[in-house]
Amino acid sequence: MPKMKSHTGMGKRVKVTGKGKLVVEQAGKRHLLEGKSSKVTRRMTGTVTVAKADTKRVKKMLGR
């Protein structure tokens, strides 16, 4: 059986921490920012962990 190919697009979006957690950038900070409050845009900076419901699917796409 051939090797599983990892999803290159997912690899560019997700980083795996030393403990195996999946970390992504916070969504919603690319456009339509005028209508969002400063409090909201500040909250969207940085990284967040992938939702528990999605981790199995994301790990499969990464080939882990």
Textual characterization of the structure:
With 64 residues, the chain is an alpha+beta fold. It is elongated, with a radius of gyration of 15 Å. It contains three helices and three strands, in the order H-E-E-H-E-H. Strand 1 (15-16) and strand 2 (22-25) form a beta hairpin. It has a single domain (8-62), classed as Factor Xa Inhibitor, CATH 4.10.410.60. The protein has a three-stranded antiparallel sheet with strand order 1-2-3. The two termini are 17 Å apart. Helix content is 31%, strand content 14%. It has helices spanning 8-13, 38-43, 55-62; strands spanning 15-16, 22-25, 47-49.
The strand count comes to 3
Q: How would you sum up the global shape? A: elongated
Averaged pLDDT, please?
Answer: 95
Instruction: Return residue spans where pLDDT drops below 50 for at least 5 consecutive residues.
Output: none
GO biological process, one term: translation
GO molecular function: structural constituent of ribosome
Biased composition (Basic residues): 1-18
Protein name: Large ribosomal subunit protein bL35
Task: Give the gist of this structure.
This protein is of the alpha+beta class. The protein is built from 3 helices and 3 strands; from the N terminus they run αββαβα. The protein has helices spanning 8-13, 38-43, 55-62, and strands spanning 15-16, 22-25, 47-49.
Secondary structure: elements and pairs:
Layout: H1 8-13, E1 15-16, E2 22-25, H2 38-43, E3 47-49, H3 55-62
Antiparallel strand pairs: 1-2, 2-3
